[in-house]
Design goal:
The chain contains 11 helices and 21 strands. With 484 residues, it is an alpha+beta fold. The chain starts with 8 loop residues before the first strand and ends with a helix.
Amino acid sequence: MTVSIAGRGGWSDETWSYLNDPRMPAMEHGWKLHVSARPADLDTVTALVLPVLSRHVCHAKFARDPDVLRRLNSGVVSAGAVGKAITVYAPADTVAEIARELAAVLRDREGPRVVSDRRVDPRAPVYYRYGPFTGDYRTGRSGRLESVMTGPDGRMFDGLAVGRYRCPPWAEDPFASSSGPSDEPSAPHFGGGRYTVTAGIARSPQGNVYRAVDRVHGQPVVVKQARAFVGEDESGADARHRLRNERAVLTALDGVAGVPRALDYFAHRSDEYLVMSACGDRDLRREVLRDGPYRDDGTRPERALSALASRLLRVLDAIHGRNVVVRDLKPDNVVLDSSRPGHCHVIDFGISERDGTGPGGATPGYGAPVLRTTGPAAPADDYYALGATLFFAATGMDPVIVDGDHTVNRDRTLACLAWALPGPTHREIRSRISGLLSFDPAERTATADRLRTGTVGTAGTARRPARPRIDDDLLDEIIEHTTA
């Protein structure tokens, strides 16, 4: 829909439609309001918000269309963008009044929680935080530009929206006595106090993952959160649907060695949580980054690349035996246990298919080149992801995805592999990874068969990767890919 208010300037870019009020005083930072919405409700919510803003002095920006909002709410653009369908920039003396009016017209509307903000009213998707109105940046310790706000006393405060509410020391919260409760369970307990959180594993826009202890049985567990309305697709399925799918898949895989067990499932307000058995203390990505790549040169038998390949394939075979296709095998989803060398687990079945059905999705470089947009996935799809995962274990690099042509990306990936594993010592494992990364499912399946039996052979029809021409454009792409 068209976003306009009489007397205010308006323009759009690829993401936002802006409204600027000429009466608005110049402000570098202040209290911002965020209105959350689901993509299908964006036009309705915008129509409700515009009359409120027309009565007040303020700037505002609106997600340009439902597809843009769907991308923002996925967390792919930025974790801090989730839930921010509309942003209102208002003077401090009227921001509370505007917020109350917005909450009144948006009562009982739904949208993703804005985790960097506090909620104005628990019955409405209106949030607030103190943040920058204009861009002010400095170079941080990492060399990257960081958003900052400078207070009246000259002190600087980080302007970045993070996974919790923060307020600079010079600002007084205008909603302190009336803001709604947090949607997160009271840390460090979950599930009515049964699970005590001991550490965080991962932070994600779609939900966090925690280590915890089951106080009833005294055993370590992993608790995975799914936030409501985050990552919503065109059918309305969101992170909670994928967590429910993971629960169903784990139930179907109960008893399979190398897969966590589903132990409990509960809801807290609109979010949902899956409790699983703990599998290990680190994932493959962290281990490779800490200890270096896997090799078959005999120097570290416990970290032999061919042994890792065989272990992962055994787990995949057991999973496929239950009519499940993982669809998301990658280094982050391979868990290792330092107390049990040689053991590995496959985790994260949110987009897995069971009996030919699932929510869909893929991780670029690990599944996207071979997963079909229609029709059920097949075990051969997981073999491609196995090849990509072994490539990471051998090189410490993700598969190349800088080109729009999957063949170019695959050939550059194999060129990197040949550089990382040179000579006759690694010829067989190179051949197997190359075969697993074939776009031909029959060739991937044949390569997996050779890996099971230990048969020495070549990777069928896989062609020798051409060396890419090194120029400034390619170097820029590689640097961007590596530092992303």
